[in-house]
Predict the structure.
Amino acid sequence: MNRETLQRALARMTLKIVGRFRGVKGLALIGIRTRGEFLARRFARVLEPRQKVQIPVGALDITVYRDDFDTLQEDIKVHGSHIDFDIQGRHIILVDDVLYTGRSVRAAMDAVMDLGRPSSITLAVLIDRGHRELPIQADFVGRKVATARREQVHVQLQEVDGIDRVILARPAGSGRTGA
């Protein structure tokens, strides 16, 4: 995906979000750090002027909720979450860049539930690459991409990487070409 196709995917997703919730009343966006946070902020920037309301946006650090936290290298950094609104009774949309095994989303749901009891939690991801290990599915998807397990999907965003694009990285010698 280049900048234009990424923006179109986000625009389609925002329309689906408004349709699903019949507006944005009671809605809050929580991005899974790092790129999910910036995608959540982009959704809010598109939705707020159209809906004429400010949408709470937060950032969630799931590091300590990961099921592999004990086995991670010592240099792992916890950046902390930033959610300065009450989630009680709200419709929470968790936002992430890539959905793969589902383990990060499970960790994010645990973190959200530790903050209170939302009315609902839905999931918005820019890329769904398959290969789920847990029964987790996105409600809003920018693009589904068929991948091999050994391939990697790299989402790059202007706010973090200085460019908007999505790249499919294939291991050397895989016989497949292109990114």
The domain at 3-146 is CATH 3.40.50.2020 (Rossmann fold). The beta strands are 27-32, 57-60, 91-99, 120-128, 140-144, 152-156, 165-169. Residues 101 and 176 are 23 Å apart (CA to CA). The first helix runs from residue 3 to 21.
